[in-house]
UniProtKB/TrEMBL annotation:
Superkingdom assignment: Eukaryota
InterPro entries in alphabetical order: 2-IPM_HCS-like, 2-isopropylmalate_synth_dimer, Aldolase_TIM, LeuA/HCS_post-cat
Pfam family, one: LeuA_dimer
The name this protein goes by in its record: Putative 2-isopropylmalate synthase
Length: 241
């Protein structure tokens, strides 16, 4: 017995189909039911995402369909096309595989992005910048994008704050020194500079250099801080973060 169903079914749906066949087809106990799962946009995608979730192993960014770059567009001409008509460069929607992007057009801002994508992203973040102000900001954005491969929303907010709103500086980073050993805690010494020029230096230990450094900042600033996200990136990607 051979059956064919669309390959965009989930694992649960596929199993339910076979169960329905066994429950409703007379004499099915005398028949071999053969199934073949297509390795395309359906079950393989679901299985890949589930393996990533439960194992903690990240799929490489350039992996087709499920990789982080599969629905990301950095080139200016691609971004312009996506903003005008999404199916220009996408044969399927990211939502079909359960990937809901912060940007509906899948814009990834980088050194190849143009003003159209930058203006759209800024507007989505609540900043209506146009004209000469946008042009000046665009070149500041490009200079940062040359150093840092991917510009995040947080990076843009920081850039807008620096370039447009000029926020009051309370603390400035001065210096940091860390000591790590194979066994034992890491130690960090951090120097911060207050708005009046006063230098504050303190040290602390932690379960790693990053943990130790942030504990020192907590000691100096005396503010309640909650870590929302942590990831290890190579230096080029970590700049500005």
């Amino acid at each position: 017995m051979v059956t064919h169903y669309p390959s965009h079914l989930s694992c649960l749906e596929f199993g339910q189909l076979i169960a329905d066949i066994k429950a409703n087809a007379p004499g099915i106990e005398n028949v071999i039911v053969s199934t073949h799962c297509q390795n395309d946009l359906g079950l393989s995608t679901v299985n890949t995402l589930e393996v990533e979730e439960y194992s903690g192993l990240q799929v490489q960014p350039h992996k087709a369909i499920v990789g982080a770059n599969a629905f990301a567009h950095e080139s200016g001409i691609h971004q312009d096309g996506m903003l005008k008509k999404r199916n220009t460069y996408e044969i399927m929607s990211s939502e079909d595989i359960g990937l809901f992007r912060s940007s509906e057009s899948g814009l990834t801002l980088g050194k190849l992005s143009g003003q159209h994508a930058l203006k759209t992203t800024l507007f989505e973040l609540g900043y209506d910048i146009d004209g000469r102000e946008l042009n000046d900001f665009f070149w500041r954005f490009k200079s940062v994008a040359e150093i840092k491969k991917v510009i995040t929303d947080d990076d843009l907010i920081a850039l807008v704050s620096d370039e447009v709103f000029q926020p009051t500086v309370i603390w400035k980073f001065g210096d940091v020194q860390v000591t790590c050993r194979t066994l034992g805690l890491s130690t960090a010494t951090v120097k911060l500079i207050a708005d009046d020029g006063t230098k504050q230096i303190a040290c602390s230990t932690g379960t790693g250099p990053v943990d130790a450094a942030y504990k020192v900042v907590d000691l100096i600033v005396k503010a309640l801080v909650k870590l929302l996200e942590y990831s290890m990136l190579r230096l080029q990607l970590a700049l500005m973060r």
